[in-house]
């Protein structure tokens, strides 16, 4: 019987070709709604998902499942322990999107520095003179603090290296380089003009940035989060932004996604909000599809995956 790979969301053709060339059946679903995935994926030996929750109950609805592939780096939405207990591999695509996420992070840093969104909106509102009362600022000479100095954090530092900024980072597993000083966590919040979050969402990081950290930051400092919304205590960030405890924020991720228009963040004028687009490029989607489907093929052919996040006996 031909093994089936279930795709709740479609992927670039290059990924599907890898699967069909390996003799696998590709089943493209109709979305991420929970019951829909259970029904459509009932015969699947592999599933390739985005950020939707995938727990033990979902796994049990797919009794043939051998591998859960995550189209991205973070796998916090997958119950890895439940997968391991069921003998299911969980794989991700850590090498495919670092550069793209770093590009977006730097783009958002520049955007909030120059008030790009507000100024562009002002033109559409026939308010050419908005700029007079809202000057931007240069980033040259400023300090950028990076929380998490893994693949993405390192790429951010590399892309910022030509902007004449001082770069510091906090990461218990990293060492200083010729261009980046590794410092303690408190130093990041107290001295950085831009605090950039590139941490994994794990129990040790969830809800670890809140009022105490915002009080440490400079009143004109910016917070930039390209990682996961749950790392920040969102309600406390709203309070800090309303009270001008910090200068502003650029956020690409949120505790609830899609972000409801009723969320208090939406009504603030010192935030830049984007809909989880850090890796949403044509090139990155193709790379993720290639890496994810190659690992699916490896597992279904009885081999070990290249990017497993769990170990099976």
Molecular structure report:
By secondary structure, the chain is of the alpha/beta class. Helix content is 35%, strand content 16%. It has twelve helices and twelve strands. It has helices spanning 13-21, 34-40, 56-60, 80-85, 98-114, 116-124, 130-133, 151-160, 185-191, 211-216, 234-242, 282-300; strands at 4-7, 25-28, 44-49, 67-70, 89-91, 143-147, 166-170, 180-182, 194-197, 222-225, 248-251, 271-273. The strands form two sheets. The chain has a seven-stranded parallel β-sheet, with helices on both faces. Strands 2-1-3-4-5 form a five-stranded parallel β-sheet. Helix 8 (151-160) links the parallel strand 6 (143-147) and strand 7 (166-170). Helix 5 (98-114) packs across helix 8. The model has no long low-confidence stretch (mean pLDDT 97).
Number of distinct beta strands: 12
Radius of gyration: 21 Å
Number of helices: 12
By secondary-structure content and strand pairing, the structural class works out as alpha/beta
Share of residues in strands? 15-25%
Strand ordering within the main sheet? 8-7-6-9-10-11-12
Give the low-pLDDT segments.
Answer: none
**What is the helix content?**
25-40%
Sheet having the most strands: 7 strands, parallel
Gross morphology? elongated
Mean pLDDT: 97
- Give helix and strand order, one letter per element, not per position: EHEHEHEHEHHHEHEEHEHEHEEH
Terminal residue distance: 26 Å
